Amino acid sequence: MAEPSTIARPYAEAVFKVAAEHGKLAEWSAALADLAGVAANERVKAAIADPNLPPAKVAGLFISILAGRLSGDAENLVRVLAENGRLEVLTEIRTQYEALKNQREGVLDVEVFSAFEMDDAQLADLAGRLERKTGRKVRARVTVDHSLIGGARIEIGDKVIDGSARAQLVALENALKA
Questions:
Q1: How many CA atoms lie within 13 A of 97 on its CB side?
Q2: What is the tens place of the pLDDT at every residue in 164-175?
Q3: Could you say which of 102, 118, 140 is where a domain stops?
Q4: Global confidence as pTM
C-alpha cells in the first residue's frame, strides 16, 4: 500500500491550487484544520474504517459535525475523499497544504526545543537570527525539554541545529572514546 504522504500529495496540491486561484489560502487552511481535527477523533476513525458504512454516510458525518463551517468546495472535498476511501489521510493533506502555503508566503515553520522557558524577547531574537540566516519569515514553536540540560535544539524541516548542552556532552564523550 502507498504511503499516506504519497496518497495525500495530489489532494493537497489540488486544494492549494484552488485556494491560490481564488485567494482563499487562509480559509482553506482553517477548513483543513477543522477536517483534520474531526478525522483524528477515535469515533470518527472507527466510522471511516467501518466497511458497512457507505461513503456518502461517512462524508455526511464529517459535514454534519462541521455544519456551517465548511464552504461548498470543502464539502465537495470531503465527498471526494470519502468516495475514494481517503478520509484517513486528511491530516497528511493538511500538513502538505500548509507546507505549500508556507512556501508561497515565504514562511518557515521552526520547532525549538529549549532546556528552559523562553520569554518573548528571547524568542524574537532567535526568530530574527533565523530569518536573517534563511531569508524567510520564521514562525517558531517552542517546547521545553529539560533533558537538554542547557541551550536549545532547533529543527527546520529536516535540518537540525543542536546547541544543547546534552549534544555537546555526547560530542565530548565520543571524542574521548576515539
A1: 28
A2: 888 888 888 899
A3: 102
A4: 0.75
